[in-house]
């Protein structure tokens, strides 16, 4: 099994060295490291001069496009993702390989992760805790961290790539599309550490995140999961509207009251 690692980055020079070292010190080495620089204007290129990697530069087009470019350029059949502000534990790749060697029919897996903020481990809330994912139990929130995901490249040929129209929640969207067609197996070990809450983290800095989840869910209204998807759309839209009314966001209120009425009629 040969493995390509895809690392998108944007203005994260201060994190990159630790990220790459965590790949290079794996107990089972990878075969290719692709860093896709999404238009960084910090000292990212200076940091990367120290490493033997496949470097791709693009004008700023978002993390989804960066990951897609990495997938398309990957030479190997197995893909592992790592965000440039995260680090892998030393046995991460070894554990994936052991799992897939003993389960050759499994096309994808992911692991648990640790969240660190200001040097302290964060205790995850119940809905954030990891489990064997299904399409249904993944509707409420994104269960799979991108940096924990490992899969065969054939998955992207079957379900498509990351949706580049989604500024955030592109991972939530892709996992749902995969889970509708393939199983993703959970390796119950924390093998990735995430740095939470820093200023460059999209989920930390992006407002109205549920608008992106709603767009992702609408793709499945014609699927066999229509009833469950509608229930989740009604739930998310109701929560979104509650916040919009509190903050007098008239544009969101106008758009999503119409959306909610549509979902209620379809339910």
Q: What's the gist of this structure?
A:
This protein is of the alpha/beta class.
Notes on the protein architecture:
- The chain is an alpha/beta fold.
- The chain has two domains: 3-205, Alpha-Beta Complex (Spore Coat Polysaccharide Biosynthesis Protein SpsA, Chain A); 209-266, no CATH class.
- The chain is built from ten helices and nine strands.
- The protein has helices at 13-24, 44-48, 63-73, 92-102, 154-159, 170-179, 202-205, 209-218, 226-246, 250-266, and strands spanning 3-9, 32-37, 54-57, 78-81, 86-88, 108-117, 120-121, 150-152, 185-195.
- Strands 1, 2, 3, 4, 5, 6, 7, 8 and 9 form a nine-stranded mixed β-sheet that branches.
- The longest helix is centred in the C-terminal third of the chain and has 21 residues, at 226-246.
Principal-axes shape call: globular
Q: What is the domain tally?
A: 2
Q: How much helicity do the residues have?
A: 40-55%
Corresponding CATH architecture of the largest domain: Alpha-Beta Complex
Termini separation: 45 Å
Class by alpha and beta content: alpha/beta
Number-wise, the strands total: 9
Please identify the top-level CATH class of the largest domain. Alpha Beta
Number of helices: 10
Strand count, sense and barrel status of the largest sheet are: 9 strands, mixed
CATH superfamily of the largest domain: Spore Coat Polysaccharide Biosynthesis Protein SpsA, Chain A
The unreliable regions are none
On the 0 to 100 scale, the average pLDDT is: 94
Within the CATH hierarchy, at the fold level, what is the topology of the largest domain? Spore Coat Polysaccharide Biosynthesis Protein SpsA, Chain A
Strand residue percentage: 15-25%
